[in-house]
Design brief:
The longest helix is centred in the C-terminal third of the chain and has 27 residues, at 418-444. The protein contains 16 helices and 17 strands. The N and C termini lie far apart (70 Å). A hairpin with a 2-residue loop joins strand 12 (317-326) and strand 13. The strands form three sheets. Strands 5, 6, 7, 8, 9, 10, 11, 12, 13, 14 and 15 form an eleven-stranded mixed beta sheet that branches. It has helices at residues 5-8, 62-74, 93-101, 103-112, 117-129, 137-142, 146-150, 157-168, 171-179, 248-255, 271-280, 337-351, 361-367, 384-392, 394-406, 418-444, and strands spanning 15-21, 24-35, 40-53, 57-60, 188-197, 206-209, 215-226, 231-239, 261-264, 283-288, 310-314, 317-326, 329-336, 373-378, 412-413, 451-454, 457-460. It is α+β, with helices and mostly antiparallel strands and 461 residues long.
């Protein structure tokens, strides 16, 4: 049966036309080789090129489009971006922020990932705005003005699956990007968070006690935050069971930090962890539990605080301090009198609550001297005020990790191999950097008490 003219006109040398029904034909690559056994030529059908209809003509297959776009991206060819059309509606605010205020980030990505930077930015945009799964990235990104500026090639689900795996193999490049944000001599904050994982194909996810107090299969992410830049600047994936300072040396060496001060929460406090930090030569400031032996709270028993060594102002509030030496380490004990009143009132409300029998007047008397206090062990060599200021930057870190889990929704992952998980975490880290920058801008504009960054602009608090 002869093919109709409207289908035949799309057939080219080296192709084969196949009929599906009267209104649909498919075009394939076609070649021939000589078969020595049969003593004649044998046809070989190659890749599917696309479909042909009388009304629509030739429509190239999505796989061919994807392969061509990826090849062009790898060759570094400029994207052919369609001009916006009259009446077309695109998201502009977040796109303009990225193009203008995050131009430095874009330049860093272009330098480190010359072939991949545009897809990285597209993925970060979708992660920050929509928390898009891979199957929705292409459609979500096409809704943005940013897609008109950098192109939207190679964003199909199939293309991104291979892209994430390839990107995850470039840990050295990822580290190079992160190091560009790190001041080797600046203060840093170490913190860890767990990321739930349903994958049974990786070694990273292990049964562990999560931050929520439950046992689950999770990956541990070690974070480094830069105090001066107010940014998350480094991450490293660890097996879920590793939650102590044994990972610090690896992270410090990988990040390029030479003489920074690690600011550590009291959850890491133990004699073995402190000894290990000393052995590794890592300078640190660590919060201590109020029950730590050697802390004398009686110095703050009198309203005059005669036992204190000095005081300073923090957010217009007086902070009293006393220096101790515990197990050969310098320790500062601080008193925030305003916080002492808050803790005292909160405890007494619980004493008078009949449902909270564990809170008693005897307990109040035993703990009252500890209310409003904070003890910090430090090997940084800094004075009491600067040690306190360094530690207080941890509040921003807690907010950033909360945003990582709840706004960017990176508290769980469905990636099935370590390389893809590496790339996905890298994408989420950049999204967190942008979110963190937006938060800082709101603070500087004195709008943070009214607004917070949200997935679609700003939301009222």
């Amino acid at each position: 049966m002869a093919h109709p003219d409207w289908a035949v006109k799309f057939r080219r040398p080296g192709t084969e036309l196949r009929r599906v029904n009267d209104s649909l034909y498919k075009l394939y690559e076609c070649s021939s080789v000589y078969d020595k056994e049969k003593k004649r030529a044998r046809k070989i059908t190659g890749k599917y090129l696309g479909s042909i209809t009388e009304a629509g003509g030739f429509k190239e297959s999505r796989k061919r489009i994807m392969e061509r776009e990826i090849a062009e991206l790898k060759e570094g060819r400029s994207a052919v971006v369609a001009e916006p059309k009259i009446g077309e509606v695109k998201e502009f605010g977040l796109s303009d922020y990225i193009l203008t205020e995050q131009s430095d980030c874009i330049d860093r990505l272009k330098r480190v990932f010359p072939e991949d930077w545009s897809r990285i930015i597209a993925l970060v945009y979708c992660r920050l705005r929509f928390q898009s799964p891979m199957r929705r990235v292409a459609g979500d990104f096409a809704d943005s003005y940013l897609s008109h500026k950098i192109g939207d090639r190679g964003l199909s689900a199939n293309a991104l699956s291979g892209f994430l795996h390839d990107l995850g193999t470039k840990r050295d490049k990822i580290t190079e990007y992160m190091r560009s944000y790190i001041d080797p001599l600046d203060n840093i904050i170490f913190d860890g968070t767990d990321q739930l994982s349903a994958s049974r194909c990786m070694d990273y996810p292990q049964l562990t006690k999560t931050k929520r107090g439950t046992f689950d299969t999770a990956v541990n992410i070690m974070w480094i935050f830069n105090c001066a830049k107010h940014l998350p600047v480094y991450y490293r994936l660890m097996p879920g069971s590793i939650k102590d300072v044994s990972a610090f040396k690896v992270c410090l060496a990988d990040s390029g930090i030479r003489d920074g001060v690690a600011i550590i929460d009291k959850g890491f406090q133990s004699a073995s962890n402190i000894a290990q930090l000393d052995k590794l030569g890592i300078k640190f400031t660590m919060a201590l539990k109020r029950s730590t032996k050697g802390l004398d709270y009686s110095i703050f028993a009198w309203r005059t605080n005669d036992g204190a060594d000095g005081a300073f102002l923090y957010h217009k509030k007086p902070i009293w301090w006393k220096r101790f030496e515990i197990d050969g380490h310098e320790v500062f004990l601080y008193l925030d009198e305003a916080h002492r009143i808050d803790e005292s009132e909160d405890y007494m409300r619980r004493v008078f609550d009949p449902e909270m029998e564990e809170y008693t007047m005897d307990g109040y008397k035993a703990k009252s001297l500890q209310f409003g206090t904070l003890a910090l062990m430090s090997t940084s060599g800094k004075d009491a005020e600067h040690v306190y200021l360094d530690y207080k930057t941890r509040g921003d870190v807690e907010q950033a990790i909360d945003a990582f889990k709840n706004v960017i929704e990176a508290d769980h992952s469905y990636m099935q191999d370590e390389k893809s998980l590496e790339a996905w975490t890298f994408i989420c880290m950049i999204a967190l950097q942008w979110y963190y920058d937006l938060s800082e801008r709101l603070k500087k504009a004195e709008l943070s008490n009214r607004y917070a960054p949200s997935v679609n602009g700003f939301r009222l608090r």
